[in-house]
Specification:
By secondary structure, the protein is an alpha/beta fold. It has 10 helices and 20 strands. It has 2 domains: 210 residues, FAD/NAD(P)-binding domain, CATH 3.50.50; 134 residues, FAD/NAD(P)-binding domain. The two termini are 24 Å apart. Keywords: Endoplasmic reticulum, FAD, Flavoprotein, Membrane, Monooxygenase, NADP, Oxidoreductase, Transmembrane, Transmembrane helix. Its main location: endoplasmic reticulum. Its EC number is 1.-.-.-.
């Protein structure tokens, strides 16, 4: 009898996990709390509880050539970088092609996942779900957690003294949807990730002025790279990786900085990363340097303090008459349906072997898929994680554990 696997979530990671279960002859049941697939990539007009939320204009930062699953290329007529509606269309085509929808239970929330009494022997899990106000308990041989990490907003208000006095509007970037309603406003965006840059560039076309406050700066790249090719098709090649892995660290750092400053000198724009030695994921925005140059986006250091109507920055400068503050300060994640003894999240880090398996489990029958931020697309990474996990569940790769 095929082993039963519970898959939690039907976004990118959940869909490829269902597919990988089927490839290995396992029997998947996917639980999705909303009414459709897509996870992060399904735009909704309003923020939904327990679901990732994106703004209407979101476009992929990785190209279609690098973002597709290994066994399902994207349609040729799709552009190189996809609007979220196009990417969602791709996920629907993938689900239809491999007949995945029949394994998904929609509008079903996972309440708890706990070990069976004899877990150390059989490695099974009791999964309790709720749908239409009714709870159901079922036993599974393995569990794949595919909930992503863009659900719980992280807003460290304690780091911004005076925010409680601020009379304007403030919210996390998760709440942002469209630029409508921000006409004529003075807006401060706090953060320097992809969302912060996208929102600042989009709002500066409607607002009176947009300020971008960054603690440590970031390398900013264009999606268009050498000779007009998508950036990731140039950087993520075997040859490029071989060269990078062969260079001494100091030389690699120098080469990287030189390459990053080819498009524009980050120092002139106040965007030099504070800890440039860490090769963290860059920001992809084709318009930000131009907007800074035109003055419609002004880069500022981190906010030291808020007053009722203004923001005081670490360099002593003051921004008066602030109407809106948008905190693009990232996300925290948790596993509310799991006991702490299974995965204990500390400092927004989960101790997972190879970013997939909780190492202290007696049996490797629970895997977290997609909880990783690679320098490049998450889709093939999540697929490889799911392929490995399902092989472990099947007993093919037990030696690796």
């Amino acid at each position: 009898m095929a082993k039963r696997v519970a898959v939690i979530g039907s976004g990118v990671s959940g869909l490829t996990s269902i597919k990988c279960c089927l490839d290995e002859g396992l029997q998947p049941t996917c639980f999705e709390r909303s009414d459709n697939i897509g996870g992060l990539w399904r735009f909704t007009e309003k923020v939904e509880e327990g679901r990732a939320s994106i703004y209407r204009s979101v476009i992929t930062n990785s190209s279609k050539e690098m973002s597709c699953f290994s066994d399902f290329p994207m349609p040729e007529h799709f552009p190189n970088f996809l609007h979220n509606t196009r990417f969602l269309e791709y996920l629907k085509l993938y689900a239809k092609h491999f007949d995945l929808l029949k394994y998904i239970q929609f509008k079903t929330t996972v309440i708890s996942v706990r070990k069976c009494q004899d877990f150390s022997t059989i490695g099974q899990w009791i999964v309790i779900t709720e749908s239409n106000g009714k709870q159901v308990s079922a036993t599974f041989d393995a569990v794949m957690v595919c909930i992503g990490h863009h659900i719980e907003s992280y807003v460290p208000l304690q780091s911004f003294p005076g925010i409680e006095k601020f009379k304007g509007q403030y919210f996390h970037s998760r709440q942002y949807k469209t630029p409508e309603g921000f006409e004529g406003k003075t807006i401060l965006v706090v953060g320097m990730g992809n969302s912060a840059s996208d929102i600042a560039v989009e709002l500066c076309q409607r607002a009176t002025q947009v300020y971008l406050s960054t603690r440590g700066g970031s390398w900013v790249m264009s999606r268009v790279y050498d000779n007009g090719y998508p950036w990731d098709t140039v950087i993520h090649t075997r040859f490029s990786n071989l060269i990078r892995s062969s260079l001494p660290w100091t030389l690699l750092k120098w080469v990287t900085e030189k390459k990053m400053n080819e498009w524009f000198d980050h120092e002139n724009y106040g965007l030099v990363p504070q800890n440039r030695a860490l090769m963290k994921e860059p920001v992809f925005n084709d318009d930000l340097p131009s907007r800074i140059l035109c003055g419609s986006v002004v880069v500022k250091p981190i906010v030291k303090e808020f007053t009722e109507t203004s923001a005081i920055f670490e360099d002593g400068t003051v921004m008066e008459n602030v109407d809106v503050v948008i905190f693009a300060t990232g996300y925290s994640f948790s596993f509310p349906f799991l006991e702490e003894s299974v995965i204990k999240v500390e400092n927004n880090q989960a101790p997972l072997y190879k970013h997939v398996f909780p190492p202290q489990l007696e049996k490797p029958t629970l895997a977290v898929i997609g909880l990783i931020q690679p320098l490049g697309p998450i889709m093939p990474t999540a697929e490889l994680q799911a392929r490995w996990a399902t092989r472990v569940f099947k007993g093919k790769w037990m030696g690796m554990m």
